[in-house]
Every structure is written in structure tokens, then in C-alpha cells.
Amino acid sequence: MSLIAVPLAVMGGLGLVFGLGLAFASRKFAVDVDSRISEIIDILPGINCGACGSAGCAAFAEDVVAGKQRTSGCVPGGEKVAQMVASIMGVAGDPAAERKVAQVMCLGDYEHAKLRSRYDGLMDCRAAAGASGGPKGCTYGCIRLGSCERVCPFGAIKLNSQGIPVVDESICTGCNKCVEVCPRNIIELRPVSMGVHVRCRSIERGVEVKKWCSIGCIGCMRCVKACPYDAIHVIDNLARVDYDKCTNCGKCVEVCPVNVIVNQGKRIVIREGQDASLIQ
What we know:
single chain; alpha+beta; 3-methyladenine DNA Glycosylase II, Chain A, domain 3; Alpha-Beta Plaits; 3 domains; two-stranded antiparallel sheet; 10 helices; 8 strands
């Protein structure tokens, strides 16, 4: 009996010593956690999108408390969350940056864009892009397999009947998930006030563009000549909008021969130094 009692007593004694040691260490090296961090975490969307620049919602909360992030830094949370974060921090709050929404820079649907091969693999845009560039003749355009739709946590982007993603701007939070998943980089975040977009990403010459897509940019320069604000330029055979100069006047839209420049009817933006009389 004593042979069993001695080892048990020793083990019990060691357990007690280690337990006391751990208790002492936990008190000695305890790190006080600011309660504001958990309060901020509780009001965040919790999707850990990283659009704020921090590594997830918890990191964002820690950065706000540490003064490394703006109280308005949560992009999906918008103005409402920004105000709540400012209230928790006891500050007036930072001016919220203009909301950005996803824009799909491709109109190459089933009607306008030709296929060069058949794809029978995994229904994922990245997988298809890795399989000889995908089935589409234009290797710059949307692959039309809906990876962006599946990754969106808000249901803000969906394929239309012609296979092209369409964004519901009233729902889109600019979380960036669809941007990250697109292998062709045709989805971009743009200021919600901007309505003029060149929905094409091909940098091929016009002849090659027309070979595969009847609605792709041909680099004709008509939009450049029509713009009164020097807000659109053809670079590498592709028309590109300078959103710092664009006023949504729609002049470029009117002259585009292939209708690849669209105007979603956003408010007119008058930039500093621009003549408002030019906007009709």
C-alpha cells in the first residue's frame, strides 16, 4: 500500500507546485486587455475581409484602440459602424471616406463574346483560367463561371442571364472579396458617385479585339477627343477613366462606337477649377 501512496503523494505535490507556479505566472505576466476592443469587435460585420487594411476585424479593433486606424476604417460597416466606433472611443469621429463599390469591367457576354474552346472542368474562374487561359476567345475578359458571386458575403454580385456579373450597388459594401477572387482582375472598387466606366480590359489592338468580342474597346480615341476635362486617355490600346477628373458628363459615352463606355446616371461631380457650364 505504501508503495502506491508514495508515488501518488509525489505526483500530487508536483501538481500543486506547478499549479501554484502557473497561477503566479498568470498574475505576474497578465496583460490587461482594453475593454473597448471587445466592444468594437461586437459591432463590426465580422467577415474579416481586410478591406480596412488590418488583418481581420479583431486586428482592426486593436488598431483603432492603439490609434493606428481611423474610426471610419471599416468599409463594409459604413457610416453607421463608424459612428458607433467613434462613440466607443469617445471621439467625434473621422470624416468617412466616400463609399466604394465593385465595378465589373467587362461586357463580354454570350451574345457579344466568342468562345475558342469548350471547358468541362471545375466551375471556378481560377481553375478555368489555369486551363489554357479559359474557353473565352478574349483572354482579358470575364470567364463567366461565377466565382465572384459565390464569394460575396452580401449577395451583392450575381451573374445575369448572359453570364456577366452585375453588382447591386445598394448592397455592395466594397469588402473586396470579389476583387481578390477574380483571376482576370476585371473587378475594381470605384467611388459610388462615379457613373462612367470603360467596361473592357483588353489591351489588344482593335482588330484583335473585334475578332473575339463585338463590344470591346478598340482604342479609337474618340472618347479622348470628346472629353472636355481630359479625364479619359487611351493607354496600351485601352480607354481608361481618370476618376479624379471625371465629372460624369457622359460626353465619352455618346461618341463610343462600340458602346463599351457606360454612364450609370450618377450625380454630376464638379471638380475644382472646372467649368460647370460645359456640363449639360
